[in-house]
Amino acid sequence: MSSMSDRILLQGIQFYGYTGSTKRNGGSASASSWMWKLHLDLTGAEDWDDVSLSVDYSQVHAAVLEIGTRQQSSC
To answer: Which of 28, 34, 58, 73 is surrounded by the most beta carbons within 10 Å?
Structure first.
């Protein structure tokens, strides 16, 4: 039986992104590599042996890229 102790580790997501917190250091893209650790409840996927009740890695990857490549427009 699963619990919120289920973890999925995504590492090596590489892209050019805007990581600065101000215009001065966030105005140009730089190479970035992120690692995300997801803590979730996968009870349904485990109990029902149903991968559709788990996580779609392509959607997580797309969200990471969207966040990381969004150009900072404030500050």
So the answer is: 34
